[in-house]
Amino acid sequence: MQGQKISPYIDEHGRQYFNFCLGAQYLCEDMANSDQLKYIVYKIIQCEYRNGTEYYHVTRDGKILPNAITANRLHYILNFTLVDVLEPGERQELPLTIEEVAEYYKQKAMEQEKQKENLRKAVKEDSEYQELAKTKKKLMIKMAFAEVKGDYEEFALLQPHYQSIEDIINRKMRRDNIDVVALDNSKKVCPYCGNTGVYRGQICKCAKQNEEIIKDYFAVKRLRQVKPN
Ligand SMILES: [Zn+2]
């Protein structure tokens, strides 16, 4: 394993984790004192993921080591000196990286573009869409007028009709395999990152809110890579 980086631990759902667990305690032989057998206890007190490398902050007999050690180094130490695992600790999931977030947003934008293109094509070739769109537009204008005039009774009458037209359009789009949700999402643009997921070199707030979805996206991708088809 020396030299070659240990790949992250991947669970059955395709999610990525640190190789070693937070809070784990290892009873090890002290190799520096080979004439008389001495034991030391290592404990992982913090897991950190930087530039694609796992780092561990570790105590040695209760004293913090000055530098965090890499997964490779820890693997090497345990391989040669481990006597017993005193505490298994808790496995931590790897945080999302900026690269993953950027890739996810790029993929999403491409998918939305494809859906818009599908819709454009469908509308062009299908007169029913054109009729529905016309009706929707007329209703929208009537509602806007009613609102301006302060005629809320009229507005309240028009709204269910408008909603039903929209429902018909949505149902029709689903039948034509147009992803209504993706289209809707494409209209929402994050004021910080402009739907790139990265703002000022950091993972944007909007991406953090979608952390689980983004992690699952890559988890599914990983599972597909492991098991073709
Ligand atoms: Zn954003």
Largest sheet: 6 strands, antiparallel
Q: Helix and strand string, N-terminal first?
A: EEEEEEEHEHHHHEEHH
Shape: elongated
Estimated share of beta-strand residues:
15-25%
- How many helices? The count is 7
Question: Helix share of residues?
Answer: 40-55%
Number of domains: 3
Count the beta strands: 10
Poorly predicted tracts of residues: none
Which descriptors would you attach to this protein?
six-stranded antiparallel beta sheet; two-stranded antiparallel ribbon; 7 helices; binds zinc ion
Give an overview of the whole structure.
- This protein is an alpha+beta fold.
- The protein folds into three domains: 79 residues, no CATH class; 71 residues, no CATH class; 49 residues.
- The protein contains seven helices and ten strands.
- The strands form three sheets. Strands 3, 4, 5, 6, 7 and 8 form a six-stranded antiparallel β-sheet that branches.
- Strand 5 and strand 6 form a beta hairpin.
- Helix 2 crosses helix 5.
- The radius of gyration is 28 Å and the shape is elongated.
- The two termini are 31 Å apart.
- The site of zinc ion has 7 residues, from helix 6.
Summarize the helices and strands and which ones pair or pack.
Elements: E1 9-10, E2 16-17, E3 25-29, E4 39-50, E5 53-60, E6 63-64, E7 69-70, H1 71-81, E8 82-87, H2 98-125, H3 127-149, H4 152-175, H5 180-187, E9 198-199, E10 202-203, H6 205-209, H7 211-226
Helix pairs in contact: 2-3, 2-5, 3-4
